[in-house]
C-alpha cells in the first residue's frame, strides 16, 4: 500500500500518500486533532494485520469520495502511546474526530459502517 520510503520505522515529516496522512508521533497526532472544522478519520492499523490490508483499498476510495475529510493512518506498533490513549484493542479501528472531539468509532474491517459514520459527520 505505501511505498518503501513511507514504511521506514521513523520519519519526521508528515507524509501524504493516496489521500492519507501518516503520523509517526503523538505530537503529530495531537497537532492534527487540534484542527477545527474538518472531519478527521484515523485508521489504526498494523502491518501484520490481514483485515487492515483487506479494507485499505476501500478506505483509499473513501478518501477520494470525501475530500473534505482528512484521512490519517497510525501504525499501532510505531505509535503505541496514541493507541493506548484511545484504548485501541483491535485492528483495524477507525476513530472519527471533529473539532478535536471523538464523534464515532468503527471497529473491524467494515467499510459500510465506516462510510455511514463518515457521511453522518462530514
Overview of the structural elements:
The protein has 122 residues and is an alpha/beta fold. It has a domain at 39-122: Glutaredoxin (3-Layer(aba) Sandwich), CATH 3.40.30.10. It has helices at residues 26-33, 50-65, 80-85, 111-121, and strands at residues 15-17, 20-23, 39-45, 70-75, 93-98, 101-107. A six-stranded mixed beta sheet has the order 1-2-4-3-5-6, with helices on both faces. The longest helix is centred in the middle third of the chain and has 16 residues, at 50-65. The two termini are 25 Å apart.
Can you summarize this structure?
The chain is an alpha/beta fold.
Set down the secondary structure blueprint.
Blueprint: E1 15-17, E2 20-23, H1 26-33, E3 39-45, H2 50-65, E4 70-75, H3 80-85, E5 93-98, E6 101-107, H4 111-121
Parallel strand pairs: 2-4, 3-4
Antiparallel strand pairs: 1-2, 3-5, 5-6
Continuous helix count: 4
Query: Architecture of the domain at 39-122, according to CATH?
Result: 3-Layer(aba) Sandwich
Q: How confident is the prediction overall: mean pLDDT?
A: 84
Radius of gyration: 13 Å
Q: Report the β-strand fraction as a percent range.
A: 25-35%
Q: Stretches where pLDDT falls below 50 for ≥5 residues?
A: 1-17
The CATH topology of the domain at 39-122 is given as Glutaredoxin
CATH homologous superfamily caption of the domain at 39-122: Glutaredoxin
Shape: globular
Overall helicity? 25-40%
**Quaternary:** single chain
Number of strands: 6
CATH class of the domain at 39-122: Alpha Beta
Q: Could you spell the SSE succession in H and E letters?
A: EEHEHEHEEH
Largest sheet strand order: 1-2-4-3-5-6
Q: Which structural category do the helix and sheet elements fall into?
A: alpha/beta
Amino acid at each position: 500500500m505505501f511505498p518503501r520510503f513511507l514504511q521506514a520505522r521513523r520519519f519526521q515529516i508528515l507524509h501524504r500518500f493516496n489521500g492519507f496522512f501518516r503520523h509517526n508521533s503523538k505530537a503529530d497526532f495531537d497537532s492534527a486533532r487540534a484542527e477545527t472544522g474538518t472531519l478527521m478519520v484515523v485508521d489504526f492499523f498494523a502491518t501484520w494485520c490481514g483485515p487492515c490490508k483487506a479494507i485499505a483499498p476501500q478506505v483509499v476510495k473513501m478518501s477520494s469520495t470525501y475530500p473534505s475529510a482528512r484521512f490519517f493512518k497510525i501504525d499501532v506498533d510505531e505509535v503505541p502511546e496514541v493507541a493506548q490513549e484511545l484504548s485501541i484493542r483491535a485492528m483495524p479501528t477507525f476513530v472519527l474526530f471533529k473539532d478535536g472531539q471523538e464523534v464515532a468509532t468503527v471497529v473491524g474491517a467494515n467499510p459500510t459502517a465506516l462510510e455511514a459514520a463518515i457521511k453522518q459527520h462530514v
